[in-house]
Amino acid sequence: MTAEETLAKLAQEVSACTNCALHTSRKKSVPGDGPATAEIMFIGEGPGFHENEQGHPFVGASGKFLDQLLAQANLTRAEVFIANVVKCRPPSNRDPLPDELVACDKYLEAQIQAIDPSIIVTLGRFSMGKFISDVKISAVHGQMRKVGERYVIPMFHPAAALHQPQLKPSILGDFAKLPEQLNEARVALGKPIIEKKIREEVPDEKPKQMSMF
To answer: What's the rounded Cα separation, in Å, for the pair 179 and 193?
Structure first.
């Protein structure tokens, strides 16, 4: 089975999953979007209101900001895979519960294995906790480290900048370093480096509606 076929099969399984209580209130599951060949995989926390309606990750206000951040790093959604640690919306955008994280982890692990990204960028403390424990995100954000066979970069969730504007410079700075970090990972993994011009500024927009995830 190809990576594309594996991801499609996982998406079907997620849409029918009843392994935790989140399935009882979902409208649409949100397995994730992106190419099976993505070098960078972003992992957020969970779907919000708009994601639950549309079945795609990061389509609310935080998703709009993520698009701007990707543009700053000279990336597009077509180049990266975006997923969450839970595939169905937690009610009222509350934090995912331990049993929900466990129930969804097998799907996320299978996606990681199929895509085999050079870098995983965790967005928020719950996705960071899957790979890096016993640290505060404020102390390690933007720092790439090897975790097992992969390179992981913890970052603040884009939604954090919408609610805590003082975090925005840190998020912008972390994304600005992504192209250089990707090349560092490529070198370490024996892959050719790719030089790209980095955009230095991101338009400052204030969305009217906010999606926590």
So the answer is: 10
Which domain, by its residues, includes 178?
A: 3-188
Q: Per this entry, what is the length of the chain? A: 213
Count of the separate structural domains present in the chain:
1
Residue 67: its H or E element:
helix 61-72
Phi, psi of 146 (to 5 degrees): -90, 130
Residue 203, pLDDT > 60, answer: no
Measured from the Cβ of residue 131, the count of other Cβ atoms closer than 10 Å reads 16
Q: Which of 147, 112, 95, 130 is nearest to 39 (CA)?
A: 112
pLDDT higher than threshold 50 for residue 208: no
pTM for the model: 0.89
Cβ of 1: how many Cβ atoms within 10 Å? 9
First and final CA of the chain: distance in angstroms? 32
Beta bridge partners of 54: none
Closest by CA to 150, choosing from 112, 124, 123, is: 112
Tell the residue number behind the tokens 């960071």, with chain if given: 128
pLDDT band at 212 (very low <50, low <70, confident <90, very high): very low
CATH of the domain at 166: 3.40.470.10
